[in-house]
Amino acid sequence: MSEVPTAAISRLVTYLRILEELETREIVRTSSTDLAERAGVSAFQVRKDLAYFGRFGTRGLGYSVAILKRELMRVLGLNQTWNVVIVGVGRLGQAIANYPGASDYQFQYVGLFDVSPELVGRRVRDLTVRHIAELKDFVRENKVDMGFLAVPPERAQDAAQAMVTAGVRGILNFAPVVIGPRPLEGRSESRSADGNVLQDSGDDWRGVIVENVDFLAGMKRLAFYTLNPHLKDSPVPEDPA
Amino acid sequence: MSEVPTAAISRLVTYLRILEELETREIVRTSSTDLAERAGVSAFQVRKDLAYFGRFGTRGLGYSVAILKRELMRVLGLNQTWNVVIVGVGRLGQAIANYPGASDYQFQYVGLFDVSPELVGRRVRDLTVRHIAELKDFVRENKVDMGFLAVPPERAQDAAQAMVTAGVRGILNFAPVVIGPRPLEGRSESRSADGNVLQDSGDDWRGVIVENVDFLAGMKRLAFYTLNPHLKDSPVPEDPA
DNA sequence: CTCTGTGAAAACCTTCACAGCA
DNA sequence: TGCTGTGAAGGTTTTCACAGAG
């Protein structure tokens, strides 16, 4: 199903970050070998990853840092504005809201939501925290594109469902649980006989993208690989001559 | 090189989380189909993932929640104590230190480190923040196994190098940069101006495991897939009859 | 001669079908 | 019969070797 490997997208993000660093250092040209070394992958991989999206280099010369950066930003959708809400404004949500770097790419935090009476009404990073009940109207009125989910795990599924119902198209899930269509409790035997009624709310999820950022899972993977280092593919593969 | 797919380890972590939830609900048996549904993968995948590590079920019956949970904890190295330091105690580092769930698995935060005079000496979560200069002695004296890296990106490589030199065996890297052996410099300008030969410390990195938890990268991947939903492999694959 | 772009081969991971045991 | 465990098939990703542009 996937024409472009998922892992390739992660690598593109890394390449872009490297290009930005090169640009701040006023380095104007680079090569697949140079990018590969800095990204910790092979030069083959760099060229293949770029080839999925176009031809950005010059044979014999390499890549223009400015051009490749611009093209990767375009490919990744980072040359447009994204309106973001954060749902869950506890310690983690606040750390996310205040973490520098998001606004570099036109990610704009337009709303913060929580259920806690202690938080609703407070100001965090020049925004007033609203109650989650206001989410639906807010998303529509403010053309919200994506939501960052930073609530405790036991509330994650409901909060995610609220986001989806409100019309959010992408969710960055920080909660250590799998979120998805319907409560995952008992399967729904709903089959539309002919008409298309019984639109189980799960259908709202079609087309919604979920990306997970799970620190507890990362911690556990780290434990495993620390005990079994030979099972980890070496981080810096060999380069060709 | 990897006998066990990397993705399988991530899934084991998910299965374990599901088993814990089943246990709190006093459900004592499960099946590959049930786990698969809750984890958002296929039942084949569940059985294959488990088969990499042993035979934990009973044919015709399924899996005992308690036994499978115990076995997965053992496989993942979560039935032993891990001594952890956090390097970087800004907003993100503090959110990590205070995030619930780490101690459930015998991950013990034994030390917090920073360079900021405003932070060093302060108490965070019953620990006093120390200066990074003390890291090396501390790691040796306290048998530190892993370090969580939550410093700003421009300091990440140096801080990571300090951890490795100190003898940490695993790094959970929250900074949005690639960390690894030596400064990854050496191309554009061979400027290691400040003299000393620094006899490439890169070798210290052998056997050190790095896991990345990169929220900015997740955000960018989300942007990409929101624009290109057809390139995302569907989150809940079909189940067999 | 250099370094990119790419078809083909190899490696890897997932899916499948069914053997095997309760 | 029911569901696990697994060799083999199928599909995807990575690696490779080299054609081709500058």
Written description of the protein model:
- 2 copies of one chain form a homodimer.
- The first copy, chain A, is an alpha/beta fold and 241 residues long.
- Chain A folds into 2 domains: 6-76, Winged helix-like DNA-binding domain superfamily/Winged helix DNA-binding domain (Arc Repressor Mutant, subunit A); 82-220, NAD(P)-binding Rossmann-like Domain (Rossmann fold), CATH 3.40.50.720.
- Chain A has helices at residues 6-24, 32-39, 43-51, 65-76, 91-98, 135-141, 153-166, 215-227; strands at residues 29-30, 63-64, 82-87, 107-114, 123-124, 127-131, 146-149, 170-173, 209-212.
- The longest helix of chain A has 19 residues, at 6-24.
- At the A-B interface, helix 1, helix 2, helix 5, strand 8 and strand 9 of A face helix 1, helix 2, helix 5, strand 8 and strand 9 of B.
- Chain A binds a DNA duplex (22 and 22 nucleotides) through residues 1-2, 5, 7-8, 31-33, 42-45, 47-48, 50-51, 55-63, 237, 240.
